[in-house]
Design a protein that fits this description.
single chain, alpha+beta, 2 domains, 5-stranded antiparallel β-sheet, 21% strand
């Protein structure tokens, strides 16, 4: 088929065209339809498909995470129980309000029992309260031998109630003795009324 034959093709009479031009025209039309379909429809569908695939991946990861949590739920529950038991044991090591004077006396007796001389034993005038417990620092200055001071700090650490020794400083004293300055912090748990009062005060402060 020559170039003249192509130029002589009548587009108003396509039905009488030779086979080859018809095939070429149909191929061009089909290609145009594919391009138009991709441009106006399929490209948007590809974007939606990619978005759906990403969402599926995210949901799959979330499902796997939740599945692991569900599988280990009994373990987590047991861990929570263990934590509650441990917290309860620690809480029982804190005295209540009525036991605080006895605890302070125990600290004093621990020093006297080791033959130490108290030059200063001064509880703070006011407790420092947190959400669940109150702290009362006691400023102490004692003199004695190195061995007796060490034994005293060991005795305090072995009290049935929690007592921490802070800001410890040891200096030479008279007659081959040592002088120790230390802050013994004692703790107690707050009763329900005090906790409620704290929460109420905190809410009022936030407002």
């Amino acid at each position: 088929m020559t170039l003249d034959d192509i130029n002589n093709l009548d587009f108003k009479d396509i039905g009488n065209w030779p086979i080859l031009p018809k095939v070429v025209l149909l191929g061009l039309l089909f290609t145009g339809i594919l391009v138009a379909g991709y441009w106006f429809d399929w490209s948007d569908q590809n974007v939606e498909l990619e978005t759906a695939q990403q969402k599926e991946s995210t949901l799959r990861e979330a499902f796997i995470t939740k599945k692991k949590l569900a599988i280990n739920l009994d373990t987590y529950k047991q861990q929570l129980k263990d934590i509650e038991v441990s917290f309860g044991a620690l809480l029982r090591q804190l005295p209540n309000k009525s036991e605080m004077p006895a605890l302070i006396t125990d600290i004093n007796q621990a020093g006297l029992g080791r033959g130490l001389e108290f030059e200063l034993f001064k509880p703070a005038p006011q407790e420092t309260k947190t959400e669940f417990y109150a702290e009362l620092p006691v400023t102490i200055r004692v003199t004695g031998s190195y061995h007796d001071i060490g034994a005293f700090t060991s005795d305090v650490s072995q009290l049935s109630r929690i007592v921490t020794l802070n800001n410890l400083a040891i200096n030479p004293g008279k007659n081959n003795t040592l002088s120790m300055d230390v802050t013994a912090s004692t703790f107690r748990y707050l009763d329900e009324d005090e906790i409620a009062s704290n929460k109420k005060a905190n809410k009022g402060g936030k407002k």
